[in-house]
Amino acid sequence: xxxxxxxxxxxxxxxxxxxxxxxxxxxxxxxxxxxxxxxxxxxxxxxxxxxxxxxxxxxxxxxxxxxxxxxxxxxxxxxxxxxxxxxxxx
Length: 90
Hints:
By secondary structure, the chain is mostly helical. The chain has a domain at 17-67. Helix content is 61%, strand content 0%. α1 (2-27) packs antiparallel against α3. The protein is elongated. The two termini are 38 Å apart. The model has no long low-confidence stretch (mean pLDDT 84).
């Protein structure tokens, strides 16, 4: 039970971080020019930082789907009543 909750938490936390990073890239140029923080300024003005942040957010989303996806969530269920296919092994 604890492992399932931990896996679900890691899945949603990783997706939330990926979405936050992508949102920072999209929303930083829209920040008013008044009192702009340094980190927002970097996201708003540097194209390389924005491209790297978007690539990182895609990587985090893929990591969430590959490693932390909860059991039974977007997975095909195998029919366990069928016997395995006989194959020759090495």
